[in-house]
Amino acid sequence: MMNVLERAQAPTPKFFKVLRSVGIIVATIGGAILTAPISLPATLISIGGYLTVAGGVISAISQITVDDKRVDKGAEGGNDE
After folding, report:
1. Which of 6, 32, 64, 66 would you label with 17, given CA atoms 20 to 30 Å apart?
2. How would you class 54 by CB atoms within 10 Å of its CB: exposed for 0-12, middle for 13-18, buried for 19 or more?
3. Low-confidence ranges of the chain (pLDDT < 50)
4. What is the pLDDT of residue 78?
5. Which helix (DSSP H) or strand (DSSP E) does residue 47 occupy?
6. How far is residue 77's CA from residue 27's CA, in Å, rounded to a whole number?
7. What's the pLDDT at 61?
8. How many other C-beta atoms are found inside a 10 Å radius of the C-beta of residue 76?
């Protein structure tokens, strides 16, 4: 059984690497909406908050997803590529 730190450092499948990047982009867009220097409607501010939270959750979940086949190879002394 792996702890959270081991999972975060373990190899991540390609799909989840892409998903993590998408999550970071979504969170960045939400953060930009929230910190905009102009006055925005309350609805847009709410959407920015949701985007920020959703992007953070997507990125976090994607980061701790582990490629079991590559982890098993590494445990057996195989090549980690």
Report:
1. 32
2. middle
3. 76-81
4. 46
5. helix 42-63
6. 38
7. 92
8. 7
